[in-house]
Design goal:
Distance between the termini: 23 Å
Number of helices: 8
Largest sheet: 6 strands, mixed
Number of domains: 2
Number of strands: 8
Helix content: 10-25%
Shape: elongated
Length: 279
């Protein structure tokens, strides 16, 4: 059976989250301490508390958590709006990535209340407070909520994320039937935000060897593309104990994908293709 949703897995065996106790087994320099608490603005009647992870390698200070009281009547409806409000009205040194504000670019992926998500499409209404904001787990932190995704994109590049076809060029485009095009649905929509890979325990354990959910989802996107002529080479490249088989079907990737995709299902299809591949 191909697992397409966490609903197919018994709740007794489903690990949605892998919370790490604060400061457990870390060096003194890496301990997360309490930082500054900023008061609510004068006259604010409707506020929400935010606990934001802070780290500046140039400051000489270790990581810490600052607390901010955001005036909801002076702020937009999303978590990203709250971050922009904090940066513009309270602490201009707060650092985070953002771009499109529409859940398309993937720039503002972060850990919100223990779960990876896009800040721009996470509404403030109904969210439990204090709202804890932290950088994507498993990635090196550059500063505050900004992480180094170099390794992530090296894995993405390794799967050759483009159509490989050395046949003579047609007079126009390479055509696909509606049925062939439909096979790409649920794969091409990936925005490379990194939410899935950074919420995947095997990726934490082997970040330099395991390609990760996002990269493998993209690999499947080109494996099933009828215009591609490198399916055999792609499968041979992935047939590796670390690149592919570190996946333990924990399903965290599918749980947190902001586009509703299922990297776990894509990985399962790759494994099936390898089983059916002629010796």
């Amino acid at each position: 059976m191909i697992i397409e949703s966490s609903k197919q897995v018994s709740r007794n065996h489903l690990f949605k989250r892998f919370p790490i106790p604060t400061n457990f087994g870390v060096t003194k320099e890496s301990r997360v301490d309490r930082g500054k608490a900023w008061p609510a603005p004068a006259g604010a009647t409707r506020t929400k508390s935010f606990e934001v992870y802070r780290y500046d390698p140039d400051s000489g200070r270790g990581p810490h958590v600052d607390t901010f009281e955001v005036d909801l009547d002076d702020c937009g409806p999303m978590v990203l709006d709250a971050l922009i409000w904090i940066k513009s009205k309270v602490d201009s040194t707060l650092t985070f990535r953002r771009s499109c504000r529409e859940g398309v670019c993937g720039s503002d992926a972060m850990n919100i209340n223990g779960r990876n998500a896009l800040a721009c499409i996470t509404p403030l209404e109904g969210i439990k407070q204090p709202v804890t904001l932290a950088p994507l787990p498993g990635f090196p932190v550059i500063r505050d909520l900004v992480v180094d995704m170099t390794q992530f994109f090296l894995h993405y590049n390794s799967i050759k994320p483009y159509v490989v076809n050395n046949e003579p060029l047609p007079e126009r485009e390479r055509l696909q039937s509606p049925e062939e095009r439909e096979k790409l649905n649920g794969l091409y929509e990936c925005i490379l935000c990194g939410a899935c890979s950074s919420f995947c325990p095997p990726y934490w354990w082997n970040p330099d060897k395991f390609i990760g959910p996002a990269g493998l989802l993209q690999a499947q996107r080109f494996i099933v593309d009828s215009r591609d002529r490198a399916t055999g080479e792609r499968l041979e490249f992935l047939d590796d104990v670390f690149k592919l088989y570190r996946c333990r079907t924990i399903m965290n990737c599918t749980e947190v994908c902001p586009k509703g995709l299922s990297p776990a299902r894509a990985i399962e299809h790759i494994k099936i293709a390898l089983l059916r591949k002629p010796a």
